[in-house]
């Protein structure tokens, strides 16, 4: 890797504070929806979250993807699914009109994403029950919102079986499609206004309505994906011809030591050099009412000692190492790394530098303390090491500024759900975010100041002697 490509290896964030897909170009939306339908699991520390780019191949488009932590067999399955879908849409073997073709794309996506869809349906029914109870307690027994909630509840209650027979599978898909159509209809009717009003109310019920909006949006996103993918085949037919789909292996997870600082009087001076706990006495006292100390203690008890390189950072690092840093390398000149969900806060900090021209979608700004930087190998040399250390310091300094703002304003830059469909943030959530930041930052700063460097990492083993400095950035948030 040459010095020009390794100097300050960060990229520019798509500059928009908007909360909708309209901040992306139509081509970027297409890539994002491809990434979305490749992200098949909910939970499991986001291990199937997927990043994707479209390069100019020799004979056609070359789609390259990776995921946070997928097994090789899972990457192969995802490659087969995506390649088959692109071929199906591009050839349209049954000469379907756009609407029937969209239906076929939707059904294929729902089957491949069955585990996640099943989770969304269960969660939707649960939160519909909560919202119905909330409306009933208001005494609004015959209200229009209550009728609409019950209608959605009815449409969401169906068997979820895609394995016992073709009939069972097709019934599940038809029922999903009917529910998603109901969600689509509600987005343009009075129910959307009800959602908007309920989610901004200053009571505990608002959280349930925000959660409802989130799961309705997640299910509806599969319809959006099918529409955008089929429309892309009309707008850019070459994207579906002579295409090649490939992946890069997920980065290994890394083991890290458990933080051992729990007292705020010890944490503050290390997390925020030049400050003492007394500098924030009134702010901390207010947060302690909401059990800040207890939250930090509980988070330490649940601390897991493995970290991962997020897929968008991993893919970016791969592209840089391969010299794919010019717009001429990318389809339509779009140096855009699509992701199945908005970028997290540390990815935002990683990408938030104008020294390069890559773009990512707007961040949801949530904190994931198991984040780490990519590995550095011996053949990458001193320039890469220096660049990584400089990036590490920039990340820590930016987060220190965020910590001070969070202490003063008690307002995190995150969401309860890591998508565009949620904007609700309660005091307890804010304190939890702040607890994570105060818990993890000192450990990173201690490592950074001690300048620990036990040798460059080896790519061959998860349990090898890993370079401490880059991986310790995980504790900066």
From TrEMBL:
Q: Which domain of life is it from?
A: Eukaryota
Q: Which Pfam families match?
A: OTT_1508_deam
**What InterPro entries does the annotation carry?**
OTT_1508_deam-like
Q: What is this protein called?
A: Uncharacterized protein
The species this protein was found in: Trichoderma breve
Name the lineage. Eukaryota, Fungi, Dikarya, Ascomycota, Pezizomycotina
């Amino acid at each position: 890797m040459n010095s020009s490509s390794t100097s300050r290896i960060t990229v520019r964030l798509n500059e928009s504070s908007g909360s909708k897909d309209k901040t992306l170009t139509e081509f970027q939306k297409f890539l994002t929806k491809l990434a979305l339908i490749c992200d098949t699991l909910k939970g499991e520390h986001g291990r199937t979250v997927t990043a994707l780019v479209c390069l100019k191949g020799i004979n056609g488009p070359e789609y390259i993807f990776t995921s946070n932590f997928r097994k090789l067999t899972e990457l192969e399955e995802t490659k087969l699914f995506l390649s088959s879908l692109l071929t199906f849409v591009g050839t349209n073997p049954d000469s379907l009109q756009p609407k029937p073709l969209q239906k076929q794309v939707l059904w294929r996506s729902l089957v491949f994403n069955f585990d996640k869809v099943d989770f969304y349906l269960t969660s939707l029914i649960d939160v519909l029950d909560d919202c119905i109870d909330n409306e009933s307690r208001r005494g609004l027994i015959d209200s229009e919102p209550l009728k609409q909630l019950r209608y959605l509840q009815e449409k969401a209650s169906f068997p979820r079986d895609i394995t016992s027979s073709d009939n069972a599978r097709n019934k599940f898909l038809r029922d999903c499609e009917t529910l998603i159509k109901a969600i689509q209809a509600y987005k343009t009717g009075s129910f959307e206004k009800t959602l908007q009003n309920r989610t901004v109310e200053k009571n505990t019920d608002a959280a349930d309505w925000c959660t409802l909006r989130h799961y309705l949006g997640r299910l509806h996103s599969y319809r959006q994906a099918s529409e955008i993918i089929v429309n892309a085949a009309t707008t850019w037919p070459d994207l579906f011809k002579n295409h090649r789909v490939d992946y890069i292996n997920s980065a290994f997870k890394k083991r890290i030591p458990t933080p051992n600082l729990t007292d705020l009087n010890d944490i503050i001076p290390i997390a925020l050099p030049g400050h003492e706990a007394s500098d924030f006495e009134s702010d901390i006292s207010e947060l302690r009412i909401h059990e800040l100390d207890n939250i930090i203690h509980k988070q330490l008890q649940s601390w897991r000692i493995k970290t991962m390189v997020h897929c968008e950072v991993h893919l970016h690092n791969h592209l840089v190492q391969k010299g794919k840093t010019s717009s001429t390398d990318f389809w339509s000149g779009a140096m855009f790394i699509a992701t199945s969900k908005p970028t997290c806060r540390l990815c935002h900090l990683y990408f938030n530098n104008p020294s390069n021209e890559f773009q990512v979608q707007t961040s949801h700004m949530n904190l994931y303390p198991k984040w780490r930087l990519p590995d550095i190998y011996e053949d990458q040399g001193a320039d890469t090491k220096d660049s990584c250390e400089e990036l590490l310091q920039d990340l820590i300094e930016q987060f220190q500024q965020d910590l001070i703002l969070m202490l003063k304003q008690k307002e995190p830059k995150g969401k309860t759900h890591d998508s565009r469909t949620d904007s609700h943030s309660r005091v307890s959530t804010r304190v939890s975010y702040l607890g994570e930041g105060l818990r993890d930052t000192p450990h990173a700063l201690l490592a950074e100041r001690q300048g620990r460097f036990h040798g460059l990492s080896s790519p061959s083993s998860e349990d090898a002697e890993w370079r401490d400095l880059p991986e310790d950035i995980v504790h900066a948030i």
